[in-house]
């Protein structure tokens, strides 16, 4: 029989529908390789992009020239812009805020590699450090409430560029899903005097059925109320609130964990499209004993349909216990 399962943080219900009996093999998809036209993100094409905001490159090389390892550039087609004020206005009950913020692209390697999973972990550590450094940068801007780091990999995940990249969209408004998690975790903390993520990780590591990888400082789980087949959450084991508090020494292990699970995803499901995004405490929130940063990984294996859009409730045909068993290295 199928089950309704509830996410303990935001209270969202999902239907784990084993009757629909999609076998993992049926979910495996073919990814298309787009033709390799001149790619503006490749090393040597720097003049095709906006001027870099940050780069991992030897001091002997010049900005906006070759020789870099990781490059952060303003998005050429930004959803928000850096000039302006964030005073709220609106029409009657309907509120409006100017489109102020920052929209950046992190180009994650110089060569035309597409999937972060295929980059060496030591290189991915530099990529993660660049994410952290951009968070630190945006934290200095009082107009910016939240910086959301996300990756689109593959056309089905919304990617328009093939070359390995992520984006940061920094906004004066905390996005709704993070707001829901903050509210849900705050309520849990009021009732239980604990961080719900710390509690959840402890419980999951005890049980083990939904654990994909565990290292000294991180775990990757298929969450109990997974919305999608093979959904994974990467969570620090220690209570950590702000991603920008991560220290340089943390990134080697974190990169190893991330490349391991993304590599498993590619191996088990034939290189599917996926998104990942980082949920962390709002930049100016200060201490948030109820909230704990984590990275959510969503393979894009099925389109959302009417029930998901209409009700915000998801039907997942692969129990997370089965997904974790397949993904475990
Ligand atoms: P995605 O759509 O996830 O593949 O992200 C790629 C992003 O790169 C898009 O949001 C584009 O607006 C942006 N982009 C495309 N070409 C350039 C370029 N030459 N310089 C800077 N950003 C670009
Ligand atoms: Zn390229
Ligand atoms: Zn915690």
Describe the structure in your own words.
- The chain is an alpha+beta fold.
- The chain is about 25% helix and about 20% strand.
- It has one domain (about 5-20, about 40-325): HIT-like (HIT family, subunit A).
- A ten-stranded antiparallel beta sheet has the order 3-4-7-9-8-13-14-12-11-10, with helices on both faces. A three-stranded mixed beta sheet has the order 1-2-15. Strands 5-6 form a two-stranded antiparallel ribbon.
- It is built from seven helices and 15 strands.
- Bound molecules: adenosine monophosphate (AMP) and zinc ion (2 copies).
CATH architecture: 2-Layer Sandwich
**What average pLDDT do the residues reach?**
92
CATH topology: HIT family, subunit A
**The number of domains:** 1
Q: Return the CATH class.
A: Alpha Beta
Binned, the helix content reads: 25-40%
CATH superfamily: HIT-like
Class by SSE composition: alpha+beta
How many DSSP H or I helices? 7
Topology, number of strands: 15
Low-confidence stretches: 30-35
Bound molecules: adenosine monophosphate, zinc ion
Strand order of the largest sheet: 3-4-7-9-8-13-14-12-11-10
The largest sheet is: 10 strands, antiparallel
Task: Write the element-wise H/E pattern from the N-terminal end onward.
Answer: EEHEEEEEHEEHHEEEHEEHEH
Q: How far apart are the termini? A: 29 Å
β-sheet strand percentage: 15-25%
The general outline is globular
Task: Please compute the radius of gyration using only Cα atoms.
Answer: 20 Å
Structure at a glance:
The protein is of the alpha+beta class.
């Amino acid at each position: 029989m199928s089950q309704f399962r509830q996410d303990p943080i935001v209270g969202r219900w999902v239907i784990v529908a084993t009757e629909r009996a999609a076998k993992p093999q049926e979910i495996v998809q073919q990814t298309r390789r787009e033709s390799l036209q001149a790619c503006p993100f490749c090393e040597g094409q720097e003049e095709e992009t906006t001027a870099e905001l940050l780069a991992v490159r030897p001091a002997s090389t010049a900005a906006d020239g070759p020789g870099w390892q990781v490059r952060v550039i303003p998005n050429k087609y930004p959803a928000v812009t850096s000039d302006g004020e964030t005073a709220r206005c609106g029409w009657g009950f309907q509120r409006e805020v100017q489109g102020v913020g920052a929209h950046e692209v992190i180009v994650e390697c110089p060569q035309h590699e597409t999937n972060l999973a295929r980059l060496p972990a030591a290189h991915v550590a530099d990529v993660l450090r660049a994410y952290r450094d951009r968070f630190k940068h945006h934290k200095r801007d009082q107009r910016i409430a939240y910086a959301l780091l996300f990756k689109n990999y593959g056309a089905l995940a919304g990617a328009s560029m093939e070359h390995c990249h992520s984006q940061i969209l920094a906004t004066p408004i905390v996005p709704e899903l993070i707001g829901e998690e903050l509210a849900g975790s705050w309520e849990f903390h009021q009732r239980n005097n604990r961080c719900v993520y710390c509690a959840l990780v402890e419980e999951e590591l005890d049980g083990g059925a939904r654990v994909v990888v565990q290292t000294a400082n991180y775990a990757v789980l298929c969450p109990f109320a997974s919305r999608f087949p093979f959904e994974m959450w990467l969570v620090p084991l220690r209570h950590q609130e702000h991603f920008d508090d991560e220290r340089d020494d943390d990134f080697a292990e974190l990169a190893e964990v991330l490349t391991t699970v993304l590599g498993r995803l590619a191996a088990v499901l034939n290189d599917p499209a996926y998104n990942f995004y980082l949920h962390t405490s709002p930049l100016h929130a200060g201490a948030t004993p109820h909230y704990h940063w984590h990275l959510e990984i969503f393979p894009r294996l099925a389109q959302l349909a009417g029930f998901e859009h209409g009700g915000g409730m998801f039907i997942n045909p692969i129990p997370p216990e089965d997904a974790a068993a397949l993904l475990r290295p």
